[in-house]
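Hi U.,

Before I forget, here's the chain from the pilot set. I'm dumping it here mostly so it's searchable later in email.
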Amino acid sequence: MNNELKNSGFSLIEVLLAIGTLAIGMLFISGTFLTGIHFATIATERTIAAIAADEAFAKIRLYGVSLTNPNLVVDQMTPFEVVVLNPIALDEFAYPSTKSLARKQYYWSALCRQVDSNPTNRLVQVTVFISRKVGNRSTYPGGAQRPVPVKVGVSTVAGAGNKNKLTINVSGEETFISGGRTIADNQTGRLYRVLLRDADAPNIIVLDRDWQGGLSDSVWVVPPPLGGGRYPCIAIYQKVIRF
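Structure:
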């Protein structure tokens, strides 16, 4: 009987196996929590982006677009600040609309393109970019103090099977566009999702669908801050507005 009692406990190997199994399980569980937090953050930002975009479109209607501005044409997109009808303060591009600078966590910017060359047509395609605030001291290409889209020259890649590929023409600008970015064709306003940047040729990007622009064209994209950092643009929205 004493022998049976002595041999009824767990051995050291069994305890170590149990601890190892528990540790592996906890690693998987913690990874699931981190993934859940990541996707919850993305969902929250996209919800806020939709609200910020609605406010941006309302402000664009309020301040108006000058239909007689020579920069507002059919075959190119122009920053809203260039064609705005009434002067607009820089604070109006921040969200939420509050006097406290600390509470302004998002920015919006817009590009405008005339839908029809007919002077009696008052329709304007408006593309709004919603971006997160990335540090008070961050600066962006062109000296901008907030995330704004910049124009990048591109050209098509010759050869079969390359209809969804573009070459970035200017050296150094390939860092503006990476996988996961959304770009807008300057001439038509069409939006494309960038799947990846070619590992062997960093100046070549692969799109989610065939390119429908010209052989030599340009696209708009919100670049990351100078010196590197998190990609600021959260979402892009488009509307056709009658002014």
